[in-house]
Amino acid sequence: MVYSRIGCCGAALFRDPRQASQQEVFAVAKGTKVATVQTEKHGATGRWAGPAEEYFFMPGTDPGLFPVEQPEWLIRRALGASVRQYARSDHGNIQRRLERNLEDRWRQAPCVFETNTVPAVAEDAMFSAGSLQINGKWLANGASGDRIFARFLKHNKTDEAVAAMISFFRQMRSGTDADLPLWDGAIRNMPVGIECRNRVNYYHFMTETLPQLTHFCDRETGQITIHCRNARTSAFSEQFTHALFPELEGRIAFTDRACRYDHVVIPFNARHLVAANGDPRIAEELDRHEGDPAWRDLTAHTQSRKFVLKNTFDRSLRQMRERALAKAAEGPGRRLARRIFVVRDPQNDAVNQRGFLGQDALWDRLRALGFEKVYFERLSPVEQISTMNAAEVVVSAHGAFFANMMFANPDAHVIEIGSIQTQFHRWGDFLGNAHVAGCRYSVVFADLAQEDPSVIPSITDGLIGVRVGKAAIDLICDLAEEGQPD
């Protein structure tokens, strides 16, 4: 049976996944070269500017999305991480700014929720720029949904347009539920499509994309195509895919080309429904935890959506954590460090060698406390997982490495060293990884690794590394020894 039409302007790519040539399929096997699906290049699809009701696909209102099975829950309370923030700059103006922007929310245990993800069939679907349209409207789905909102707001900047969008989502929330019609049929051999930012950023691939494969390990679907924004590749994306999903060997393809499907199975996540849907499985769960007032009256405003992101994690991430720890347990037993200082491999050209001033002084102190230096880039995927899970205390400067916090032991204390740049522009990126592990997560905002650390540069000039002075080093070592204060 032909389930799909893939390619630009309806051009057929695979009529049946078994007919794909060996060169077109990413065989997840050692030494196999990644090949992107070859289709005609396709530009941006649909209008970025315009009213929200014409731009956003709204589950429960717009037709074309059919869950394979009815989810019993959409969000549910989770333990989450124990999170603390600290300001330790050597410069008065920076210290004051840092202190003003510390979030009071994390001083007590807030409400954290796990959001559900279920396989669903999308009809008349178009993947482009790492995102998905259904029947001509963009679906806000998981991490790609955040980028969908960003594109909309970039082209609809006026106060009136933003207010209209927020009003539209509020109306949807008051009058819509997520009781979608189920897919009436089999999905055997039906193609699967997964959104992907790229394969070169460790955090985005490991946190957002790879976990979605957990929904298809035990299902007899067809070709799994991961739709990326560009064709750049990385060794780690192949290595982790092979290590964690060997049963999917030969079924996965990557492409940066726009692809259209008549019908395609997608992993559909409920996070964006929180501000867009009044389903009782969301509303009643939120009402059950009225002790956390921040969850009341959520909207589609950027700050509101960031709040939801910081206080949730995807079920897919939990499933991949469980799978990864099971794989690591199968490996040979060996001695693993309990206290680790994670640094970037200076001999690896693929690693972004961001500055870390004061690193030697910090290392001298940490080494005296029994820490061992670890280069994660030199470890295999299973070794990375095992090392992270065995550690009791982890210290590292801000970077994509913190995606590995998803593998941390619940009793671990993970300490991130950041700056005023990471506080303004990156804070919260790793909270989902911490929440799914349920570990302790402390962030010490120090200084920038630049000639004048008292100056706050524009983020458009790029993310600068960190600088730690004596005050920051003292605090990091105190946290490593004493743990988070009550």
Question: What can you tell me about this protein's structure?
Answer:
This protein is of the alpha/beta class and 486 residues long. It has two domains: 1-74 and 116-288, no CATH class; 79-111 and 337-482, 3-Layer(aba) Sandwich (Rossmann fold), CATH 3.40.50. The chain is built from 14 helices and 21 strands. It has helices at 52-55, 92-100, 142-155, 159-175, 202-209, 235-244, 280-287, 302-310, 315-330, 359-368, 381-390, 420-425, 431-437, 470-482; strands at residues 56-57, 65-67, 75-78, 82-87, 112-115, 117-128, 131-134, 137-139, 192-195, 224-227, 252-255, 259-269, 312-314, 339-342, 356-357, 372-374, 393-397, 413-418, 440-445, 447-448, 466-467. Strands 1, 2, 6, 7, 8 and 12 form a six-stranded mixed sheet that branches. Helix 6 (235-244) links the parallel strand 10 and strand 11. Helix 9 crosses helix 11. The longest helix is centred in the middle third of the chain and has 17 residues, at 159-175. The radius of gyration is 23 Å and the shape is globular. Mean pLDDT is 90; it is low at 1-46.
Task: Name the shape in a single word.
Answer: globular
In total, the number of strands is 21
Helix content: 25-40%
Q: How many angstroms separate the termini? A: 61 Å
Number of helices: 14
- Work out the count of structural domains: 2
For the sheet with most strands, the description reads: 6 strands, mixed
Q: How much beta, percentage-wise?
A: 15-25%
Mean pLDDT: 90
Q: Given the helix and strand composition, which structural class is it?
A: alpha/beta
